[in-house]
Specification:
Residues 212-245 are annotated as: Disordered. The radius of gyration is 32 Å and the shape is globular. It contains eleven helices and 34 strands. The protein is an alpha+beta fold and 730 residues long.
């Protein structure tokens, strides 16, 4: 018995030791599972929240980056805009006043938007009573000049083109108590449409999203007209980040209550006939007429904010068009610009059917007002289709979804399905435009009909050149129309897409313009104003004329031809003619202009600057499609230096002659407030809200973590019951 007791005791000990080892091993395994669950959950959350870092929007501002982040040491005091509109030309002067109210010298960066058509030809700065005129230099040389002057203790300014319509100026050595006045001058062409002129002063640099090559690899989820789905995977988020330029990152803080700068604007319209129907849907303006001049003034009110573009529209009495031929002479060369009114639109008796692909941005930056406006626009566009037409709809953000794998007939049922698909969107995720465009341009096409691609977006991306090249390469026989939606859209992208697609661009800043723009689009599709346009010069020697090939005139706007010439013009002895020919709905059309009756602008240089701007656009387009990029860059540099023109490769630099600060004494760097574009809520960047795939990852992460917690609690409860059972047996 003793042996048995001893053996039994040893067996029980071994049993309990084994049980203990089992429980310890089980407990260790459970803990390991819990750790793994938490790690997986956290990893999924990190993956969901990563991918695209938002960049905030920026109004014109001095952003002084560095040590004391958030210090408001250089507030923008005021912005004053003076514009003179004479016929098809606008001369604009922008004056911004800042003050260093801190106690240490500052180095500032000034970022501001510009018109996509602006020829920036002069910049001056006044600091400490000194007026500094900038000179144009090659970009690298200008940067070295600025850095050298700054290190020597001189006040210096450097103006660069961060993007085509986003400029950046660095200002070094601004002393305490200084008031800094920055003056910028530019010229641009304005052209009426349907008899109405439009002039835009941009105030907000909207955020930009830069996608990555990864997003090009994804496939697309398809949704057919009946609501069924075809298996597929969404385009991955990529790892793109929102940034206009590496140097612009981090300089973002929103203007608070009472921090808004004073914004004033005065536009003078000079015409030979009375001006009527002056409107500004973005700001409250006052209009007064004095003789042959009409002044439009933006008074200092709460409405005068720089969180949205200022858009001025007007008509001339009788819907007259300020046009004709103008000539100029500058630095030994002669320039001309022709503005010619096309024939009236004639709707033909038979309108052939067409195929449409609508590409709609539903990303985070479109959340709210822009997306709701886009939905209304799409409703108008789709409802205007005829049953003989066919269409497809592609929605994009970080991923893409199409209505159908094939074009569908424009029946009420298919239109309802498309609107229902769009209606479910709330706006979220990044803005992967390039993969969406590529997918749209490769969608199957209906045989025997012409195709039009329609892009609807706010344009908050950084791929203007890439998109242009893609459309030029892939579009073939189709047209591409672009609609910009919002108070401060990326007009550079909207206009370049349409130019690449040989069609038209439109910006809709409010719901009130949706019906009007949809009707104009339908009219352009059904009855182009003029096709197969060609220009002939009779006894008028010209060269380097733009556009080199006239596109079809889809909208009711004047034809514009600009170039160089030799010989005489604007005189009785000039007997040459310019003849424009084409086909309208009424048959063959021809317009003639006598060279001898030209308006002489000799000595102003304005036509030279506008010609140089057109040449710059041509070179940028060639550069974008990879046409001898090194040669094109050299040509752009030469163009900028000759015409005193700000370009991607030439910059303005100004250096004071007086040393105002000890050499090597670094200036303080802080961040300055910026404005948030109207229609975007605080906290929104690009993207503003998670993509559906991101939401899925976050839900999965939460479920995994919850599962781990549940398993741990279950184990603890089970162990408690076991302990209670053992306690009861004892």
């Amino acid at each position: 018995m003793g042996f048995m007791k001893c053996g039994q005791s040893g067996g029980m000990d071994a049993f309990f030791r084994g049980e203990l080892d089992f429980r310890n091993g089980w407990r260790a395994r459970e803990r390991m599972r819990l750790v793994v669950a938490w790690v997986i959950g956290l990893a999924l959350m990190a993956l969901a929240l990563s991918g695209a870092e938002p960049e905030r929007a920026g109004s014109p501002y001095f952003a002084v980056k560095g040590a004391e982040r958030g210090v408001d040491a250089l507030p923008l005091k005021s912005t004053d805009v003076q514009a003179v509109l004479v016929g098809p030309i606008a001369e604009v002067r922008v004056t911004q006043v800042y003050a260093n109210e801190g106690g240490v010298p500052l180095e500032a960066r000034y970022v501001f938007p510009g018109s996509t058509r602006a020829a920036v030809h002069a910049m001056t700065m006044t600091v400490g009573g000194r007026r500094i005129d900038a000179v144009i230099k090659e970009k690298g040389e200008a940067r070295k000049t600025y850095e050298k002057a700054k290190s020597e203790g001189r006040t210096a300014a450097l103006l660069e083109a961060a993007r085509s319509n986003v400029f950046e100026m660095n200002v070094g050595n601004i002393l305490p108590g200084d008031v800094v006045t920055v003056e910028l001058r530019y010229s641009e062409m304005i052209s009426p449409e349907e008899g109405r002129y439009e002039w835009v002063f941009p105030t907000v640099v909207g955020p930009r999203y830069a996608g990555t090559a990864k997003s090009e690899e994804g496939r697309v989820k398809r949704e057919n007209g009946s609501g069924g789905t075809e298996a597929g995977s969404q385009v991955p988020e990529g790892g793109g980040q929102a940034s206009e330029d590496g140097r612009l990152a981090g300089a973002r803080r929103y203007v608070g209550a009472g921090e808004e700068p004073v914004f004033t604007l005065e536009v003078e319209i000079v015409t030979g006939v009375p001006v009527r129907e002056v409107t500004c849907g973005t700001h409250k303006v006052e209009t007064r007429t004095e003789g042959g001049r009409t002044r439009v003034v933006l008074p200092v009110t709460e409405d005068a904010q720089m969180n949205r573009d200022c858009i001025l529209r007007y008509r001339l009495a009788g819907d007259a068009i300020a046009g004709g031929l103008m000539v100029d002479e500058w630095k030994g060369e002669k320039y001309f610009m022709l503005t010619l009114q096309p024939p009236a639109r004639v709707t033909p008796a038979f309108v052939p059917p067409r195929d449409f692909v609508f590409v709609v941005d539903v990303s985070g930056s479109m959340h709210g007002f822009p997306l709701e406006t886009a939905k209304k626009l799409m409703s108008e566009l789709l409802m205007s289709l005829r049953e003989a037409d066919s269409f497809n709809v592609l929605l994009f953000s970080g991923g893409s979804r199409v209505l159908s794998g094939e074009p569908v007939a424009a029946t009420p049922e298919n239109i309802a399905a498309a609107l229902a698909m769009l209606g479910r969107q709330q706006g979220g995720g990044s803005t992967e435009l390039l993969p969406a465009l590529k997918e749209a341009l490769e969608l199957p096409k209906r045989a025997g009909v012409s195709r039009s691609v329609v892009v609807v977006t706010d344009g908050y991306v950084m791929v203007e050149a890439e998109a242009y090249a893609l459309v030029r390469e892939k579009l073939s026989e189709a047209n591409l129309f672009s609609f910009g939606i919002g108070s401060s859209v990326n007009r550079e992208l909207i206009e370049r897409l349409a130019r690449a697609g040989r069609a038209e661009a439109a910006v809709i800043e409010g719901e009130a313009r949706v019906v009007e723009e949809a009707a104009k689009f339908r009219a352009m599709i059904e009855s182009p104003v003029l096709t197969q346009v060609r220009t002939e010069f009779v006894d008028f020697a010209t060269r380097e004329v733009f556009p080199q090939v006239q596109p079809d005139v889809l909208a009711a706007r004047p034809l514009v031809v600009i170039g160089k010439f030799s010989g005489e013009a604007a005189s009785d002895g000039a007997g040459g003619k310019i003849v424009v020919k084409g086909f309208s709905g009424g048959g063959v059309w021809e317009g003639k202009v006598d060279v001898g009756g030209a308006v002489d602008l000799r000595g102003s240089g304005v036509l030279a600057q506008l010609w140089a701007r057109e040449r710059l656009e041509q070179l940028r387009d060639l550069h974008a499609v990879g046409d001898e990029p090194v040669k094109r860059k050299e040509e752009i540099v030469a163009l900028g230096l000759k015409y005193n023109l700000l370009t991607p490769y030439t910059s303005f630099v100004a250096v004071d002659t007086v040393v105002r600060k000890a050499a090597g004494d670094d200036a303080q760097k802080v961040d300055q407030t910026v404005a948030l574009p109207e229609g975007m809520s605080a906290g929104e960047g690009v993207p503003t809200t998670p993509e559906p795939g991101t939401v899925t990852l976050m839900v999965m992460a939460a479920l995994v973590v919850a599962w781990g917690v549940w398993r741990e609690r279950k184990r603890v409860r089970g162990r408690s019951r076991d302990n209670a059972g053992h306690g009861g047996s004892m």
